[in-house]
Design goal:
By secondary structure, the protein is an alpha/beta fold. The protein has helices at residues 4-17, 20-29, 42-55, 63-78, 133-136, 147-160, 197-204, 232-251, 270-277, 311-326; strands spanning 82-91, 97-107, 114-120, 168-174, 214-219, 228-231, 258-263, 282-286. A six-stranded mixed β-sheet has the order 1-2-4-3-5-8, sandwiched between helices. Strands 6-7 form a two-stranded parallel sheet. Strand 6 (228-231), helix 8 (232-251) and strand 7 (258-263) form a beta-alpha-beta unit. The two termini are 39 Å apart.
């Protein structure tokens, strides 16, 4: 009988030691999830990356940028979404004028319960993380940085045409996220507001009521074996919804890619800007490479090409997101 108190101590310790993510995973086990009728298609998602890369760099003021915008608008419209285009003339850090297009597409615009999906579709105007000076001036494909988040959102948009989702979805394809100065030119400071010019413009001129219950930002999500951590802006804005998403990823067998590790590595991204003008809690999926304690190793390099994008990574993120959306009405029970 003298062991009994120890037994209590161990049980209490186990409960106390259970991490927030473990708690969320066990909460989610009580929720009956339904399989999405049509699964997220990894080949289709990868083909959307290839399509964007084929246009060339999506750098503002270039014809390849404009052609890709036209493609996105037509594609989203062809899926029956209500598409709004916000044209903006903005100035970058150097005072150059940039013609931007933010593209916003709505699924079921009348639905009261809404989720925001957010990406940037522009690409970096220089490969400034290359060490070779000549290469630094070249324009990366942005297959992962820009291309991957956009591709996943296009695939989700395509699926909404084929499956009834009891939800309204607002897709935000922001332009001008990559507008900050090149890292090799130290005469310009790497300020937060030199990036995300598209979402900054949107914040000043919003087109929609920003009443979405939650937002999911996708950026640099297609690297080989990409892993995701709890990025600190997201933790501040949307910790519980983010844990729910992570728990769902674990539930689907992707546990080793959704880490319960809080990291402080994002300089600026569109969720940080949007949070300045709305109360929408937004969490970001953005690859964290532990060995570099930074983004994917090909980011802002010429090697950010389609060979370094993995359709399995697109599937892990996109598949979890598709589950999240199609089961959303049951998931709020675990949002506390
Ligand atoms: Zn970038």
């Amino acid at each position: 009988m003298h062991c009994y108190p120890w037994f209590i101590v161990i049980i209490c310790c186990l409960a106390a030691c259970q991490s927030d993510l473990d708690k969320k995973i066990s909460q989610l086990q009580d929720v009956e999830l339904t399989n999405p009728e049509i699964p997220f298609n990894r080949d289709s998602a990868l083909s959307f990356v290839a399509k964007q890369v084929d246009f060339g760099p999506r750098v503002p003021n270039l014809p390849s940028h404009s052609n890709c915008a036209d493609y996105l608008i037509n594609k989203l419209s062809s899926y029956g979404l209500s598409v709004k285009v916000q044209e903006a003339e903005v100035e970058n850090f150097r005072g150059d004028s940039l013609s931007l297009r933010n593209i916003i597409a709505q699924y079921q615009p009348q639905h009261k319960t809404r989720i925001a999906l957010i990406c940037h579709w522009d690409t970096r105007p220089y490969a400034d993380r290359e060490t070779d000076f000549a290469q630094q001036k070249m324009l990366p494909d942005g297959a992962n940085d820009g291309g991957s988040g956009t591709a996943i959102m296009l695939e989700i948009a395509r699926l909404t045409q084929k499956t009834d989702v009891d939800l309204g979805i607002d897709f935000f394809f922001f332009d001008g996220e990559e507008t900050g100065p090149p890292e090799y030119d130290t005469s310009y400071a790497q300020t937060m507001n030199s990036y995300c010019l598209g979402s900054q413009y949107y914040c000043e001129n919003p087109l929609l009521n920003m009443h979405q219950e939650v937002g999911v930002l996708l950026d640099i999500v297609g690297g080989q074996k990409a892993k995701f951590t709890l990025e600190h802006h997201s933790v501040n804005q949307a910790y519980q919804p983010m844990l729910t998403f992570w728990a769902l990823g674990h539930n689907l067998g992707f546990g080793q890619y959704f880490l319960e590790e809080k990291t402080r590595f994002v300089g600026n991204d569109d969720h940080v800007e949007l949070h300045k003008c709305s109360d929408v809690p937004i969490f970001a999926l953005m690859e964290y490479d532990d060995s570099r304690q930074s983004y994917n190793t090909h980011q802002h390099k010429m090697s950010d090409n389609i060979e370094n994008v993995s359709k399995e990574s697109l599937y892990r993120v996109g598949g979890t997101l598709w589950y999240y959306l199609t089961n959303y009405s049951s998931l709020p029970h675990v949002n506390e």
